[in-house]
Fold this sequence. Notes:
By secondary structure, chain A is of the alpha/beta class. Chain A has helices at 20-28, 53-58, 80-88, 105-114, 152-165, 177-183, 197-204, 228-238, 265-276, 297-311, 324-340, and strands at 6-11, 33-38, 63-66, 92-95, 118-120, 139-145, 170-173, 213-216, 242-247, 284-290, 315-316. In chain A, the strands form two sheets. In chain A, strands 7-8-6-9-10-11 form a six-stranded parallel beta sheet, with helices on both faces. In chain A, strands 2-1-3-4-5 form a five-stranded parallel beta sheet, with helices on both faces. In chain A, helix 1 packs parallel to helix 6 (177-183), helix 3 (80-88) runs parallel beside helix 4 and helix 7 crosses helix 8 (228-238). Chain A binds chain B through residues 130-133, 189-195, 197-199, 223, 225-234, 236, 257, 259-260, 271, 274-275, 278-279, and chain B through 130-133, 189-195, 197-199, 223, 225-234, 236, 257, 259-260, 271, 274-275, 278-279.
Amino acid sequence: MFPKPYLIFVGDVPYSTATKTALGVRRWAPQDCVGQWRLSRDAVDLELPDFDARAAAAAGARSLLLGIAPIGGQLPTAWIPYCIEALEHGLDLVNGLHVKLADIPEIADAARRLGRSLHDVRYNRQKFAVATGRKRTGMRLLTVGTDCAQGKKYTALALTQALRARGVAADFRATGQTGVMISGSGIVLDTVVADFVAGAAETLSPDAADDHWDVIEGQGAIFHPAYAGVTLSLLHGSQPDALVLCHDPTQREIGHYPGFALRSLRETMQMYRSLARVTNPRAQFVGISLNTCRLSDEMARRQCQNLAAEHGLPCFDPLRFDSREVVDRVLALVNACVLTD
Amino acid sequence: MFPKPYLIFVGDVPYSTATKTALGVRRWAPQDCVGQWRLSRDAVDLELPDFDARAAAAAGARSLLLGIAPIGGQLPTAWIPYCIEALEHGLDLVNGLHVKLADIPEIADAARRLGRSLHDVRYNRQKFAVATGRKRTGMRLLTVGTDCAQGKKYTALALTQALRARGVAADFRATGQTGVMISGSGIVLDTVVADFVAGAAETLSPDAADDHWDVIEGQGAIFHPAYAGVTLSLLHGSQPDALVLCHDPTQREIGHYPGFALRSLRETMQMYRSLARVTNPRAQFVGISLNTCRLSDEMARRQCQNLAAEHGLPCFDPLRFDSREVVDRVLALVNACVLTD
Lengths: 341, 341
């Protein structure tokens, strides 16, 4: 979808949640990153060669990736010349910011003049059909959460890698802008008109071989007061065979929604399972993925053990512990399907 | 929102589901209809004076309402001159078709030249914020369904009328194009970008007096494989105190989705209640509204009695039986809130 490899623009933004897209692309698609473009010593260091547009183009870069979130989501005026410089050196722009580069006249004009493309990842112009509910071939895993930002994307990426490491044909299916920038394809679901979100989710994981896995990045949370609708449409359109619940064990309330207490993992899984079975009666949980970044190693391990025992499911942190048991469960599902079909 | 009253265009379309918007506006907003414009004897008769654009303008009409659905949703070329004729006689166009009149050059040009507005009801350009989850003042009733097209709009309209007849301040809140054309305001929810649907639903029923009721038109169904996401966003954003379940007792499967069996009313209500309580812990069912158009009077009455006994809720058909008991329950909720607050 986007010309790769990328030169990653970090500007002068220090390490923070504002740099998470850049860090995500660096971490999960290292083969697609030729360098970083830093404008200050304080800027986050992605541990990539430091290039400007000219040097990156010489090193083979085909796009400048804007993976930092400036405050307010607007593009600082000072960054416009760097964007134009990249276009002049033959790079496309891959933009994950809220601002649309196509709406910035200097950049739009330069792109037109130079025959380059502006990929505004958050602005989807693709049209989707209404969901059909038709069961597709192949196997699907969807990560779901107790809230937003619980590790759904990283869990899906880690499980895709782990499946591939076991020789299984597996594809990561991105549903948010960072995921789309990491994988170079996917659908930014939250930009789709409401009636077509389940249909878009159907398009995202098409018919595949019986033992092929699509590992789909979840969005939102089913008890989230603002985003549950997107979560449900994705759940229905994905028709997952396997679900993995993502959770931060230190969290008590929905982020930014004080007073909205998280439900128990049991209630949350029950709700997901019951709604998922509308489009796939076989939907079941195969694991729990904990985001333990706020816990010590010892605490994290104990939490995983406790939850595993409580729910009878493997429990892991994809950035800390191995996912072997979850992958075992996933693979067992394929055999179960083959046996009962 | 739209200039009223309307001249309703029915063209040459005979009575059918294609004429339901025209019939709905005629039935629920008779005070807003000055006449009908029929091009053929076979066209549906709304029992309004037969006018062309000139005669309607003389009788006070301010808009031509396109409330028929031509096959495929496109505007037949033969209708374009009638649209232009209406513009020439000083009428706006209120259009519920899938086609956008603003995209038809002859019509767009004429509107510009004559200074008239084209209200393409299905194309919402309003921007909404992400839902806040903040509890609003006032009371809210939402109609929900076992499927699409079970009477959610008519039930909401009938209950609004019944509440007003009892001297209660009540507003119908439209969420679909027919509802918007009937009430002259509202939000066509299924055209809103997914992330903002719950936010749009919050906007739709703003803070109000403690004993004021917003009666909100539901959309889709919570077990619908394509539209459940919209249903859930509307449920969360509406934060209803009262829910009314709409159902066609002769239906066994989701319409146009063979193999997707309807769930029991009990399971359906349980799911709605449990999800509604995310944003309003007081949410409860106050009645069941049956669409009994396929049943005899005797059968309809028996069905209502049986379901009322089974679920301990008043059960009625808003087009056939009175809604007194449901309204009693609705009004009792206000007292309950005042007592516990």
